[in-house]
Amino acid sequence: MIEYRFVHIWDDEVVPVERYFTAASSAEALDMFAYTCLKTGRKPILQEFAQWDRWGQSWIALPVPERNEYVVGDEALTPVPEKENNDHEQEKREPALS
Tens-digit pLDDT profile for the chain (98 aa)? Predict the structure, then answer.
């Protein structure tokens, strides 16, 4: 189980709110956060989504995918488009030994 942190603001407030969820994956944590958004009846502006690194004792920022339950903030880390992501992966691969 991994700990995830969500930092968001409500559209009529300026003080950020932090919510923490323990989940098996980032997708599961996003589902949990989305569910709480639906239960409040308000649409928060999500500014940060992060995963706790137990060994590094720090938060690792994760991309925030678009969803109907919240608005992605201007400063949030967003996913890399699929084409750019494939280009980066090819650059990281080492050439095969010949």
Answer: 999 999 999 887 889 999 999 999 999 999 999 999 899 888 999 999 999 999 999 999 999 888 888 888 887 877 766 665 555 555 555 555 65
Q: What's the predicted TM-score (pTM) here? A: 0.74
Please name which of 75, 23, 21 lies closest in space to residue 45, comparing C-alpha atoms. Answer: 75
**Number of Cβ within a 10 Å radius of residue 19:** 15
Nearest to 29 by CA among 10, 9, 1: 1
74's tokens: 């201007």
The residue type of 29 is A
Q: Is 28 helix (H, G, I), strand (E, B) or coil?
A: helix
In the chain, domain spans: 2-92
